[in-house]
Amino acid sequence: MTPFLLLACQESSEVDSDEIVVMGGGLMGSATAWQLSKQGYQVRLIEKQDSIYTQGSSFGEARIARSNNRGNDIWSYLHNRSVREVQDLVDFLDENEPEAKHVMEDIYTTSPVTYVGRTRIHDRLLASLERQAVKYDMATSPLEGKEMYNVELPDSVLMQREYNLHSGMINPQALIQKLHQAIRNKGGRVEYGTKIRGIEYNAETDLYDLAVVKDQQEQQIRTRKLVSALGPYTGSILKPLAPYLDTLINPQRVFLAFFRVDPKVYQTLSPEQQKKLQEFYPVINSSKGTRAGSFFSMIEYFDPEGNPIIKIGGHFQRSDIDELDQVWQKELKQEELDWSLNSTAGYMQMLSLPIKREDIQFVDGYSCVYSLTASEVPIVSPIIADNRSPNPNVVILGGMSGVGAKGAMTYGLIAADLFTQREERDSMYWVVKEALGFARLLEDVY
Ligand SMILES: Cc1cc2nc3c(=O)[nH]c(=O)nc-3n(C[C@H](O)[C@H](O)[C@H](O)COP(=O)(O)OP(=O)(O)OC[C@H]3O[C@@H](n4cnc5c(N)ncnc54)[C@H](O)[C@@H]3O)c2cc1C
Fold first, then answer.
1. Using a 6 Å CB cutoff, which residues line ligand 1?
2. Given 62, 325, 340, 362, which is the most exposed site by the fewest CB atoms within 10 A?
3. Are 251 and 370 in contact (CB under 8 A)?
4. Planar angle of CA 190, 196, 201, nearest 5 degrees
């Protein structure tokens, strides 16, 4: 036992054997804690940040939520099932807090999702669209681009637009707040400002001892059942229980830049042009045909004067991290700012809007982090016990990558079901559970 845990043990607390401790109050931990509460379990959610988050992979007000995914149907299911789960959450809060009005629009902004890509993906795109319930249209040539959307498509570039209800953007900050409210309504505990410093399994008691710091005091939390949803910190904190996660779940830095169109220029746009600018976000643009040229971009919020603040980042511009705790402070390099500005200006040109590069003003920029598995498919699974069987008392959610937000409620549901043994008949539920689950974890490790 480490000296720190020895010290902490002196203040050991009673164990509530019915309680499940959830480590990490980002989207995954909060969604899992809610799903467990909904199924009648007592939860204790532990989060190191104060109630107003300033970092974490779930930090911010906007992520793209979409049904269509060219590669794999599991992403489509994760999103659509999450929409249903959010509706359920909103209904629950509405019933329990009649004085506050909760609506889906607090969480989702329905807006066409625009995909720009090379025409060589056309067949794959059509095949995926046949399998997935997506309302869409698509321009596949410069002429169709002009006629359908009044945009300037280069040769060999297509534009697809998805129009499903609740496709567009999801607001992680608002969703986490609602999840915490709902957990408390069910009698669960949400503890902010509580940092987990270490974790140990005690074979004699069959309990997990967490050494935590709260209000500069060292404390111990003891539990039989544990969920780990620590985002990029999964590998380092779970090392004593699951050392393999440290190499399996790889934290990556992703930079984000925020711009606005010079307000003087924005005000000269006609109402139709302003509407067009707003409706052609969010966008996923891979039309350069290179991974380095691909970007995602969306309107994060509107400033007090009504100017849209456009966020842009690139999932393929990500990089390894030396110091996880320091990465949030890392400033953007000039080349990252230039890439962000050029990509934004290029998109304005594609939209045929009278906005030049010099009309686009830098507002903010920062580094953030998410974590990836090698296949970029997340893990929602029990950890591996000594005899390579699933340990039913510890479930991890990790490697949620750059598409975790839209499926958060489904990941949480699957994680909760691993404790509660709740099952569903829907075949896609099983496909997704398998893709994320224990057999896959074993394969990745051995
Ligand atoms: C730049 C960027 C763009 C993205 N774009 C999209 C998108 O367009 N669409 C989409 O669907 N998804 C997107 N994602 C992905 C999505 O946001 C993430 O997959 C998701 O937020 C991951 O949530 P999480 O709960 O796993 O991690 P986190 O949010 O990091 O949660 C982990 C929590 O654990 C807490 N914690 C860590 N260590 C400790 C400790 N020692 N003690 C106590 N608490 C601790 C942290 O403070 C944090 O709150 C994007 C992510 C990023 C970073």
1. 24-29, 46-49, 56-58, 63-64, 172, 195-196, 229-231, 233, 237, 254, 256, 296, 313, 368, 370, 400-406
2. 325
3. yes
4. 105
Phi-psi region of 193 (alpha: psi -120 to 50; beta: other; left: phi over 0): left
Q: Which of 326, 355, 372 delimits the end of a domain?
A: 372
Whether residues 186 and 309 fall in one domain? no
Which residue type is seen at 420? T
Per residue in 56-72, pLDDT (tens digit) is 999 999 999 999 887 77
Q: What distances in angstroms separate CA 211 from CA 66, 86, 394, 396, one per listed residue?
A: 39, 33, 17, 18
Q: Is the pLDDT confidence value at 120 over 90?
A: yes
Q: pLDDT tens digits, residue range 376-415?
A: 999 999 999 989 999 999 999 999 999 999 999 999 999 9
**CA distance readout (Å), 21 to 223, 241, 245:** 7, 15, 20
**Which residues lie below 8 Å from residue 441, measured CB to CB, with a gap of 6+?**
379, 381, 383, 384
Domain boundary among the residues 319, 346, 372 is at: 372
Closest CA to 139 of 155, 131, 273: 155
Q: How far apart are CA 48 and CA 46, in angstroms?
A: 7
Phi, psi angle pair for 108, to nearest 5°? -110, 140
User: Cα separation of 163 and 438, whole Å?
Assistant: 35
What is the spatial distance between Cα 90 and Cα 349, in angstroms, rounded to a whole number?
39
pLDDT at 263: 98
Q: What is the CATH number of the domain that holds 352?
A: 3.30.9.10
- Cα R_g (the chain), whole angstroms: 23
Residues 68 and 217 in one domain: yes
CATH number at residue 217: 3.50.50.60
Instruction: Tell me 25's DSSP state.
Output: -
- How many residues are listed for the chain in this entry? 446
134 and 17 assigned to the same domain: no
What range does the domain containing 215 cover? 1-98+172-249+373-446
Give 316 Cα–ligand 1 centroid separation in angstroms.
17
Spatial distance between the Cα atoms of 250 and 244, rounded to a whole number of angstroms: 11
What 3-state DSSP class applies to 195?
A: strand
Residue 59 CA: which ligand 1 atom is closest? 29
Q: How many separate domains does the chain show? A: 2
For residue 343, give the amino acid letter: S
333 & 270 share domain: yes
Q: What is the dihedral of CA 42, 46, 52, 53, to 10 degrees?
A: -130
